[in-house]
Amino acid sequence: MTILTEALLASFDASVTNVATAITMPPVIYTSDEFLEFEREALFASEWQCVGRASRIPEVGDYFTTTVNGDPIIVARAKDRSVHAFSSICQHRGMQVADDAGNCTKFTCLYHLWSYDLTGRLLGAPAMERTENFEKKDYPLPALAVEQWQGFVFVHSDVNAAPLAPTLATYEPYLKNYDLEATFCPGTFTLTDMPWNWKVMFENFNDGYHANKLHHTIQDFCPSELAAFPVEWTPESNVIFRTNGYVHIDGGFNATTKALMPIFPNLTEEERTRSTFALMPPTLCFGTAPDQAFFFIVRPKTAATIDVEIGYLFHPSAPEHPMFDHLLKMSDAGVQVFVAQDQDATAKVQVGMKSHHAPRGRYSWQEESHVQFNKWLVQRYRKHWASQVSGT
What we know:
This protein has 6 helices and 17 strands. It is α+β, with helices and mostly antiparallel strands.
């Protein structure tokens, strides 16, 4: 029996009013694998998705592999230095061509030695000369659209998708003085099979209400009452963000509550006394502090599990600091305190969503971002509902 009913669709209306009157989304959309499959088409197959930093592939021939909506892909820098993304599934018998990262001049499927160039074009197909009407040009690795924004690589399954950048414009003034394309990323780490729904992750990341409640003491410098929501969400926007002020300049998410890394030199005094937290659904959570930016790339696996890739961005001068490695360890140790607290909370939220007593709760004014996220979701749920549900 399907959960994709008209009653469920109508129930979303109560979550997209305003923060003073709205209620939380229905718990079932956080626990149902059927609903996640609906979202895979309504959201993940229809929106731009972040796959990583362009700085990960700085040289011609550099590549990495990842998954997009559960589908294995290759992201590579071609001979003209442009970035391409394409399926890693060989167009002969469906074997995965690559599942690693590195540098190469071509990709070769080890099964039958079909080979592809750095744009996915088929170069060689041994012993196919007797196959009728076979033209190599007709069998490239299927391409995805690629767009780079602030040093991140985004992909879209529709090669003719509308550009992403205009839909993120409201957030760009808050990033200008970071020059994110030039930042240094010391690498990322991935947490696998985290036991909560992808939306629970997004909501927790941009939840100002829990800032110095769940994270009391360590985040008292960045308290909930200094949360602000400077931009109203509009239907053409693909970013939801807030600011959160500090009680002192150059705050830091670590045991000292002070920035440890070199401060970005072009920041204004106002920017040095706040963080920003942004959602670019359905995959990227991003934030800033005076000495760093941080990102979480979320990849749903089931309704109740995700993988999440986490990385930090620093001013390009940071690695030159003689104590950089030690400062990085201290900074990361502080972040891990937040991560551990958030993991405990989000895991328990996911358990709660399955309860018969799971609420459709009310929002604090400090949770305005949640209502904006609801509006982003529901707009897309409604758009795809008829076509998706009619096929069930």
